[in-house]
């Protein structure tokens, strides 16, 4: 068990050494303490939390349909969807799976730099998004917004259930505080 330490010490027979050995135990003696959130909160090691809101709570309040587009769609059709539903970004699907997001800023920049409305959206699709599940804590969404990510909600079997915008999050949090 201590063979390495003994071999190391034997390399210096003419010197007295202090060798520190750190040995981890299985922590089974502490199961009723540090692995018990209630004990940790009662003893000041964790903040007492209010009941945590879930992503599904925000989605339930939002009640909007999710509009999407697919790879290969012309920019013109994507702009039409954005105008029709008054939205600024659309999740992009490929064979039913979320592969990115396209937003009005990227579409505008593309058109201003000489792109055409007939061009496909494929080059405009961004991967700067995070996927959360309805059961995730809502605080996770706030962390993703701090990283400038767009938040997409995917439920069971990979079904797209929603997109959460910063204004959705602001509305929900300001109402609940």
Write a short abstract of this structure.
The chain has helices at 3-10, 37-42, 55-62, 75-85, 104-112, 138-146, 166-176; strands at residues 69-70, 89-94, 97-103, 129-132, 150-154, 160-164.
What CATH architecture label of the largest domain applies?
Roll
- Number of helices in the DSSP assignment: 7
Number of E strands: 6
Approximate helicity band:
25-40%
Termini gap: 56 Å
**Count of spatially separate domains:** 2
- β content, as a range? 15-25%
What is the average per-residue confidence, as pLDDT, rounded to a whole number? Answer: 83
Write down the Rg: 26 Å
Q: Spell out the helices and strands N to C.
A: HHHEHEEHEHEEH
Largest beta sheet: strand ordering: 1-2-3
Q: Helices, strands, pairings?
A:
Blueprint: H1 3-10, H2 37-42, H3 55-62, E1 69-70, H4 75-85, E2 89-94, E3 97-103, H5 104-112, E4 129-132, H6 138-146, E5 150-154, E6 160-164, H7 166-176
Parallel strand pairs: 1-2, 4-5
Antiparallel strand pairs: 2-3, 5-6
């Amino acid at each position: 068990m201590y063979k390495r330490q003994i071999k190391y010490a034997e390399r210096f027979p003419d010197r007295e050494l202090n060798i520190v050995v750190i040995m981890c135990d299985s922590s089974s003696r502490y199961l009723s303490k540090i692995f018990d959130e209630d004990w940790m909160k009662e003893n000041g090691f964790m903040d007492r939390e209010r009941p945590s809101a879930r992503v599904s709570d925000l989605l339930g309040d939002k009640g909007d349909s999710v509009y999407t587009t697919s790879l290969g769609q012309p920019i013109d059709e994507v702009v039409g969807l954005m105008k029709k539903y008054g939205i600024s970004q659309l999740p992009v699907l490929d064979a039913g799976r979320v592969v990115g997001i396209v937003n009005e800023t990227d579409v505008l920049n593309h058109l201003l730099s000489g792109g055409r409305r007939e061009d496909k959206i494929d080059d405009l699709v961004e991967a700067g998004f995070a996927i959360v599940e309805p059961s995730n804590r809502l605080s996770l969404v706030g962390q993703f917004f701090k990283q400038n990510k767009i938040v997409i909600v995917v439920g069971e079997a990979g079904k797209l259930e929603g997109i959460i915008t910063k204004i959705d999050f602001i509305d929900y949090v300001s109402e609940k505080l």
